[in-house]
């Protein structure tokens, strides 16, 4: 069954360019000589390293423990920890983060063992997922165990499996669906046990017919797992739009998908869950799309977490020409980096090397109030009005217009005939609001510390005064009780 694109609001039809990388099988590369394993592979606080320089580790060994809602990190390869230091990270705006530098020993790898985990309870399965450090592989990189624990006490009607991959160029999920269907269906069965949902629906955009048929065949014995086609329409893969298209419900502002009885997981995350439960494999590798017009041979590579992008490019035959832009993720929601000496993390779905002809044009002109950005916005916002407010530094008014609901999907900027960088306006505004929030938090902390200091000084002053009064009273009492000295001369 193919759903009408009208089931979601707005959206656009960018050129997919998926043919560049979806014609070959997933290639697993040999262990690199060095890995740079970021301690922040997920949302939440960075994991805490539990190894030190000089330690020998084996593949799959826990090397950093998640803190709070963050996830564990394991060694993708055996080797030696040679440094724990800051290194260039694949984050928006550049910058460095703390990483474990591992010198790999490709001759000393461990084999996974098939485990008997049938009959495990929901809590036991979540603990396995937690221990394996699995995070959402669709780009959100939210720790999966945390997400599942939040659904335990909710009534879940439907488990949705996201196979849309609506971003142009990216084909890693497409190839995982074609080549790892057994693992995906196995992971879905575990998720059905965890959530208690009576039904799972795998939603796939209709530009992936092979993946769709492969999963239909793999799920043929499961009456409670369905595969449904969705129209190729960006941003169909966004969680709220995905739920809206398949379940015909809208997640209210400020609410989570579990509040409407739905849990969403990515197809690659399902495969990772299966590997963790069945074989005890932690999440140490992922499939990455390496693509773009500037690349010699675009392909999908299964690589250890921490592999440098420069090594992936070398495996693809290098660059045909200097890339005009290097993008982490898809071109609609990804971010630009400037240095290939940057390692991939668990959430890296793709790295694109784009030519000048593949980039949007920046010959901007004034807004003509055509309203196309309003029609394209999947959240029903007024992008042109918000951009004007932001241009005048009226962020508070932009928030009232719905800035916090913006997905930063880029649909408005894509459709704008004036080539206005609308998404950049919203990214800038969000960064400014975050900065203001941090400054307010610092100011509140300073006020609280100052109040505490004032109270402490007042308390100390009162205590000193009380002690002084007590000493004074003690001296007075001593004088009153002291007997006068009388000299008695002995009679001669």
Tell me what the structure shows.
The protein is α/β, with parallel strands linked by helices and 492 residues long. 33% of the residues lie in helices and 17% in strands. It has 13 helices and 17 strands. It has helices at residues 122-131, 144-149, 172-179, 181-195, 209-218, 239-247, 267-279, 309-315, 372-376, 383-391, 395-400, 411-415, 422-481; strands spanning 27-28, 34-38, 48-49, 56-57, 62-65, 73-74, 79-88, 96-104, 158-162, 199-205, 225-230, 262-266, 285-291, 299-304, 325-328, 335-337, 350-354. The strands form 4 sheets. A 6-stranded mixed β-sheet has the order 1-14-13-17-15-16, with helices on both faces. Strands 2-8-7-4 form a 4-stranded antiparallel β-sheet, with no helix packed on it. A 4-stranded parallel β-sheet has the order 11-10-9-12, sandwiched between helices. A hairpin with a 7-residue loop joins strand 5 and strand 6. It is globular. The N and C termini lie far apart (134 Å).
Helix content: 25-40%
Strand line-up of the largest beta sheet: 1-14-13-17-15-16
The H/E string reads EEEEEEEEHHEHHEHEHEHEEHEEEHHHHH
Report the sheet with the most strands, covering strand number, pairing sense and barrel closure: 6 strands, mixed
% residues in beta strands: 15-25%
- The rounded Rg comes to 30 Å
What characteristic shape results from the CA principal axes?
A: globular
Poorly predicted tracts of residues: none
Number of distinct helices: 13
Cα separation of the termini: 134 Å
- SSE-based structural type: alpha/beta
Total strands: the figure is: 17
Mean pLDDT: 91
């Amino acid at each position: 069954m193919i759903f009408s694109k009208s089931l979601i609001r707005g959206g656009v039809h960018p050129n997919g360019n998926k043919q560049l990388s979806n014609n070959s099988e997933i290639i697993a590369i040999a262990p690199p000589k060095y890995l740079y394993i970021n301690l922040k592979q997920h949302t939440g606080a960075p994991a805490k390293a539990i190894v030190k320089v000089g330690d020998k580790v084996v593949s799959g060994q826990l090397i950093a423990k998640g803190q709070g809602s963050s996830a564990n990190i394991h060694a993708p390869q055996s080797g030696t920890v040679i440094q724990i230091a800051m290194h260039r990270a694949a984050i928006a705006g550049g910058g460095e983060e703390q990483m474990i530098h591992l010198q790999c020993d490709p001759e000393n790898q461990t084999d996974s063992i098939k485990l008997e985990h049938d009959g495990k309870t929901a809590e036991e399965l979540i603990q396995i997922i937690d221990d394996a450090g699995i995070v959402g592989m669709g780009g959100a990189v939210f720790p999966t165990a945390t997400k599942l624990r939040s659904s335990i006490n909710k009534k879940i009607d439907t488990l949705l499996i996201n196979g849309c991959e609506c971003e142009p160029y990216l084909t890693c999920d497409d190839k995982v669906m074609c080549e790892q269907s057994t693992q995906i269906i196995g992971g879905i069965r575990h998720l059905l046990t965890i959530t208690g949902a009576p039904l799972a629906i795998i939603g796939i955009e209709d530009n992936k017919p092979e993946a769709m048929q492969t999963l239909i065949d793999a799920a043929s014995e499961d009456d409670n797992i369905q595969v449904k086609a969705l129209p190729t329409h960006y941003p169909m893969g966004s969680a709220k739009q995905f739920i809206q298209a398949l379940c015909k419900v809208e997640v209210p502002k400020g609410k989570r998908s579990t509040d409407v009885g739905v849990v969403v997981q990515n197809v690659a995350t399902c495969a990772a869950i299966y590997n963790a439960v069945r074989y005890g494999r932690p999440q140490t590798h992922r499939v990455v799309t390496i693509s773009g017009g500037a690349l010699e041979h675009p392909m999908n590579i299964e690589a250890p977490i921490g592999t440098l992008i420069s090594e992936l490019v070398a495996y693809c035959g290098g660059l045909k020409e200097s890339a005009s832009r290097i993008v982490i993720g898809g071109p609609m929601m990804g971010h630009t980096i400037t240095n290939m000496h940057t390692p991939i993390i668990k959430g890296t779905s793709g790295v694109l090397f784009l030519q000048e002809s593949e980039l949007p044009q920046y010959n901007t002109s004034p807004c003509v109030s055509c309203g196309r950005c309003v029609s394209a916005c999947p959240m029903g916002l007024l992008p042109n009005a918000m951009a004007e407010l932001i241009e005048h530094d009226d962020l508070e008014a932009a928030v009232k217009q719905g800035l916090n609901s913006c997905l930063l999907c880029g649909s408005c900027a894509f459709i704008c005939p004036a080539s206005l960088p609308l998404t950049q306006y919203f990214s800038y505004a969000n960064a400014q609001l975050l900065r203001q929030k941090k400054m307010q938090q610092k100011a509140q902390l300073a006020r609280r510390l100052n109040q505490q200091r004032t109270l402490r000084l007042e308390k100390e002053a009162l205590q000193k005064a009380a002690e002084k009064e007590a000493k004074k009273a003690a001296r007075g009492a001593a004088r009153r009780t002291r007997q006068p000295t009388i000299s008695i001369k002995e009679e001669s």
